[in-house]
Each structure stands twice: as structure tokens, then as C-alpha cells.
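Let's see one such:

===
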Amino acid sequence: MFTGLIEAVGKVVGIERHGAAARLTVEAPFPPAEISLGDSIAVNGVCLTVVGKGGGTFTFDVSPETIDRTAFRRLKSGSRVNLERALRLSDRLGGHLVTGHADFVAVVTERREASGNIMFSFRIPREFSRHLVEKGSVAVDGVSLTVAAVRGSAFTVALIPYTLERTNLHAARPGTRVNLEVDVIAKYVERLLGSPRPGRSKRPGRARKRP
């Protein structure tokens, strides 16, 4: 579990393709002694397991499912990636609950300045727009952001200068593809509301008439 508060921006230094899978090596400023093999790190909002480390780099295996569902296929040597280590129970939850399981790839459609902030608009699959609400939370390449507006199959967020400077979103432009994870609470609520209660059928029976 993560918070969407990016700890560092790393650099991709190697990508080895293994059929539909890949092995990703990222240069990161994390102290090696604080990272163990098997630890989880969110890379651009995607939870990956550390399988190797050394020389200031960390290596991850990326499954075909992850490559198919994220923008990882566009990563190349030199790409900048947002990094966050897994949440500890003693940490403050400054962002929102982020699982590191990206739902889909969104596309930047607009970038503009407004009162010192940068407004980004994204195009998303229409079926996911119901999971986004104004003032709700969303993770964009692992960055916890507040939804400013939702219109059909698009939504807008505002980034303050601090966030822009300390994440890879400073380089995002119209056409940039990003990993997007909607609020997990919204998905659970939808699941609960769309499923019958335990012990009840989907169709309510006809009420019995009182004698």
C-alpha cells in the first residue's frame, strides 16, 4: 500500500525484454541498506518487487499483465520515473490510499497555467469516469492528486509548483501517457452497490399479502 506522495524521481538505466515480460533497472537515491530483496516500490504508480540491487540501482521483474495495462511499454533508458516505497503503519497518510495496481493508461490532452498552478486534463476510458468525482482522489503516475473537474470521459487536476518540480509530471505534455489508478474505495463501493446482499437474490420476491 502507498500514499501517492512521491519520495524521489529515479532514472531508468536498463530494460531487458524477455518475450512479453521485462526486467527493469532503475537508478534511485534510496539507501541500499533500507531496501531488501522482496520489498515493494511503486514505480510510476505501479507496485513492483525488488529482485536485485547494487551500485545505487534497483531491479524489478515486470509481468506481461503489467506491461499490457500500463505505460511501461513506452519506458526507455533515461526515462524519469516517480518512486515511492511502501507505506509503514507508523507513517502519516498525507495523500490517499494507493494500491499500486494501475487501472488503465490515461492521455494528457491539455496543459495550462492558472494562478501559478499547472492544470492538466486527461482523456480516460468512459467506463472509468464514474469512479472519479470532483474533489475526490486519483493517482497519476503514482502521484496523489485531487480531481478539480470531471466532464464526460475527461477530468482535470491542478499541480502546485512543489509537486510539479518533484515528480516526473513536470515533463508531461499533451499526448503523454500516464498510469492512472482510481480511488480503491470508489471501486469497493461500486462493487457493494452492484451486488446483492448475502442471502438475497438479485430479484426481490413479490411481497406476501397480509391475511
The mean pLDDT is 91. Residues 199 and 205 are 13 Å apart (CA to CA).
